[in-house]
Design goal:
Helix content: 25-40%
Number of domains: 2
Number of helices: 14
Strand content: 15-25%
Radius of gyration: 23 Å
CATH superfamily of the largest domain: Alanine racemase
CATH architecture of the largest domain: Alpha-Beta Barrel
Number of strands: 22
CATH topology of the largest domain: TIM Barrel
Distance between the termini: 62 Å
Length: 430
């Protein structure tokens, strides 16, 4: 007799998997009401599987949390986290604005339905082409990262005979606890104007007839699990002047493993908005830029186990790896994993989950307990919505995975799997 459906209440599933994830009557993991094993059979692996309701719920949580503390605000999706038209469309439908850091992200945001007037263009090395594209699209605000930005944008705006609203990115010299590669607010950073350079930059932009300076922006890093650095950054810029708009960045971290605990969205909002009220005054327009915290836990990646071997360690080899999740190799990021076919089975041994690529460092998860993995099983890693699809690549000529949206038991492909023909599509000549 098969046991009735079991709600996912273990600390592993409830903490790091999408909202609503559960184990069904067959003992399989379900995402968005869809059986993960059946999804693998229908769409193949590797595959990114997104619980659409999770995306919508997190977007609403951010909006509701800010609305409870402040009247004049916008929540911007930091699109670099999951640059996908369908993701943009869902978040635009939920009323979010968008920040983009390249011409490509701008194109995706526009394709996804974001109002150009509510798009903010960032970037430390914007090209003239990207600035032109933003101006042509009618992007509402451009964030200046350097005097080169300022001079180039002035010339382009003057050619159009218009005035462009801008913000200045200030480096607050605040570094949160995170990996060095995703820490952006420290003094020695490629981003923004240093605190001692900011007053001159502010005066320079204020004197421009072509640019209208409306406010300041900062961003101190990503995957931050403590709140004090956000408050410290607000303190750092508070004496630079009085502005109608302050972009307080993003960076709120998420749990990737059961050992990690992230602040609640409401607590994060309370910290940054409260600091803004105390230090910047009332009546300001406040902007927040969550990326990872909106999308990371909405998504899992499905793999097929190709083989199991034991030498010094015990290894599970899957049909993906660093081409679909580069974060463990770039940052040493830790993940959980389970066997979707036997989602609640008791683990029998610890394994390293290795990818298929020609690098010894192509290991997705280390020392993860699994229940007698076998070739053909479907292995799942959670919390891959942020920077999985974004960093995907074709190493070893591996086609990039599809993105599959699941909602209410129905699944649809929103980004198809690449083919071998796609790998050669840009070739020229005989």
């Amino acid at each position: 007799m098969i046991d009735p459906p079991v709600a996912v209440t273990s600390s592993q599933l409830s903490q790091v998997y999408p909202l609503g994830a559960r184990v069904n009557e067959s003992g399989h993991l379900e995402i968005g009401g869809c059986d993960a094993v059946e999804l693998a059979r229908e769409f193949g692996t590797p595959a990114y599987v997104v619980a659409e309701d999770d995306l919508r719920a997190r977007a609403r949580s951010f909006v509701d949390a800010v609305a409870a503390r402040h009247d004049d605000f916008d929540v911007l999706f930091a699109s670099k986290a999951f640059p996908c038209t369908a993701v943009c469309r869902v978040l635009a439908e939920e009323g979010l604005a968008c920040d983009v850091a390249s011409g490509g992200e701008l194109a995706l945001a526009l394709s996804g339905g974001f109002d150009p007037a509510r798009i903010y263009l960032h970037g430390n090395a914007k090209s003239e082409t990207e600035l032109r594209e933003a101006l042509t699209a009618g992007v509402g605000h451009i964030v200046l990262d350097s005097l080169h930005d300022c001079e180039r944008l002035e010339r382009l705006v003057a050619e159009l005979g218009r005035v462009q609203e801008v913000l200045i990115r200030v480096n607050p010299n605040v570094a949160g606890t995170t990996h060095a590669a995703i820490s952006t607010g420290q003094a020695d950073s490629k981003f923004g104007f240093a605190l001692d350079q900011a007053p001159a930059a502010i005066a320079r932009v204020r004197a421009s007839p072509d640019l209208q300076l409306v406010g300041l922006h900062f961003h101190i890093g990503s995957q931050l699990l403590e709140l004090e650095p956000f408050r410290a950054a607000v303190r750092a810029i508070a004496d630079l002047g009085d502005f109608p708009v302050y972009n307080l960045g993003g960076g709120l971290g998420v749990p990737y493993t059961v050992e990690q605990h992230s602040p609640a969205i409401a607590d994060y909002v309370e910290a940054v908005v409260g600091a803004a009220h105390d230090l910047l005054g009332q009546g300001k327009r406040l902007l927040l830029e969550p990326g990872r915290a909106l999308v990371a836990n909405s998504t899992v990646t499905l793999y097929t186990i190709e083989g199991v071997k034991r030498n010094v360690s015990s290894w599970v080899a899957v049909d993906g790896g660093m081409s679909d999740n580069l974060r463990p190799m770039l940052y040493g990021s830790a993940y959980e994993a389970l066997i979707a076919d036997r989602a609640t089975a008791s683990p029998t041994e610890r394994f390293h989950v290795a990818g298929k690529h020609c690098e010894s460092g192509d290991v997705i998860v280390r020392d993860v307990p699994l229940p007698e993995p076998r070739a053909g099983d479907i292995l799942v890693t959670p919390a891959t919505g942020a920077y999985g699809h974004a960093l995907a690549n074709n190493y070893n000529g591996v086609p990039r995975p599809p993105v599959i949206f699941c909602r209410g038991g129905s699944a649809r492909v929103v980004v198809r799997r690449e083919t071998y023909q796609d790998l050669m599509r840009r070739d020229v000549g005989p």
